[in-house]
Structures are given as C-alpha cells and as structure tokens.
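Need a sequence for this fold. Nothing fancy.
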C-alpha cells in the first residue's frame, strides 16, 4: 500500500471549493438556498470563518477518504465512489439534516446543503481514484 497522494488531496480540496462556490452562486442554488433560509440573497463577505471551516473540512474529508482508500487497498474509482457515498451518508447527511431540522428549516435546505456535500464527496472520490500515485 502506498502513502496518501497529497497533490491529489489538494486538487480534490480545490475542486470541492470551486464546486461549493458554483453551488451557492446565482447560477445554481443561491436563490433557493436563501429562500429556504428565509433570507434575501446577499453577497457573502470575501473572507470569513465559514470559508476557513469549509476549507479545513474539505481537507479533513479528502485526507480521510484518501487514507481509507489506501488502507483498504481500494484505490480505484469504482471502489472510491461507494466509499465516499457511505461516508457522506453516515457522517454528513444525518448531521446536516438533524441540525437543519432542529433549527426549524425544511427538507429543501437539507437537500441543497447535503446535496453539495454528496457532490463534493463524489468529486473527491473521482479525483483521488483517477489520480495515479507516481512512483518515486
């Protein structure tokens, strides 16, 4: 078994951040997300704690997924995708759903927020599974 490919993890994190920007942009879900939050769609500040937490969370998820892929010897995309989906369901979907429901939001917000997390998990699995670790 090889070591975690740090470049692939960084690429996956950057791809997840780009997807998150697109997901919550006016092109996709900015309006529906704001409606589900009972807010107006106001531009977010360029730098804030949520962005830092998002980046750190992406690193944590991508490193965990890469480590599990290496540890189990299941480094191909066909194994990485179901693993990422299982991690999303077991660790992210129910956490987001519980939090949103306790805060008084509906299933529309859960679908938008957890949908991004699933898309990011699958994107990371795709990148990590396709990126071949170069021999030293």
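Here you go.
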């Amino acid at each position: 078994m090889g070591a975690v490919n740090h470049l692939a993890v960084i690429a996956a994190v950057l791809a997840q951040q780009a997807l998150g920007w697109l997901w919550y942009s006016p092109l996709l879900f900015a309006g529906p997300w704001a409606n589900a939050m009972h807010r107006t769609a106001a531009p977010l500040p360029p730098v804030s704690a949520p962005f830092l937490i998002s980046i750190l969370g992406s690193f944590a998820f991508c490193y965990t997924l890469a480590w599990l892929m290496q540890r189990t010897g299941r480094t191909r995309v066909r194994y990485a995708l179901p693993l990422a989906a299982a991690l999303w369901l077991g660790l992210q979907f129910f956490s987001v759903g519980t939090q949103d429901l306790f805060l008084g939001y509906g299933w529309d917000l859960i679908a938008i927020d957890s949908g991004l997390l699933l898309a990011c998990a699958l994107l990371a699995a795709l990148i990590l599974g396709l990126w071949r670790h170069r021999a030293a």
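For context: Residues 6-42+51-130 form one domain.
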